[in-house]
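Action item from last meeting closed. Structure (134 res):
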């Protein structure tokens, strides 16, 4: 029911733009979570390079998938965005700690901006909390 309430106070164009902007990082994070569960050689190499035990890959993958599911459910999307912001903050801290190239540090920031930007476009309650215009 909440989705219908949001749809009446947000134009269809804005709502669909919000869904598309939200879907991009959500799809990436779902794929990333599944890949962590499968642990191909690239994931193993990445974990070793970042200084994490490979045994953490499954737990991190499950955590990422759960947070992303919470984000894609309309009633819990704000909580999901908060949880994913924390997850992405950890990713940024990890990349900074190992001295990774700029893109590896900036990419989680871009994902976070897309998560919150899409949510901002599709959720009128969030826009009322964070008005960007006077």
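Sequence:
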């Amino acid at each position: 029911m909440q989705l219908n309430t949001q749809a009446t106070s947000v134009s269809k164009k804005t709502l669909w733009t919000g869904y598309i902007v939200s879907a991009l990082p959500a799809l990436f994070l779902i794929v990333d979570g599944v890949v962590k569960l499968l642990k191909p050689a690239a994931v193993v190499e990445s974990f070793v390079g970042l200084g994490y035990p490979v045994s953490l890959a499954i737990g991190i993958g499950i955590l990422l998938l759960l947070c992303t599911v919470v984000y894609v459910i309309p009633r819990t999307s704000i909580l999901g965005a908060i949880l994913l912001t924390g997850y992405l903050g950890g990713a940024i801290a990890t990349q900074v700690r190992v001295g990774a190239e700029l893109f590896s540090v900036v990419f989680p920031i871009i994902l976070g901006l897309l998560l919150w930007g899409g949510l901002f476009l599709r959720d009128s309650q969030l826009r009322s909390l964070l008005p960007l215009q006077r």
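Note appended to the action item: The chain is about 80% helix and 0% strand.
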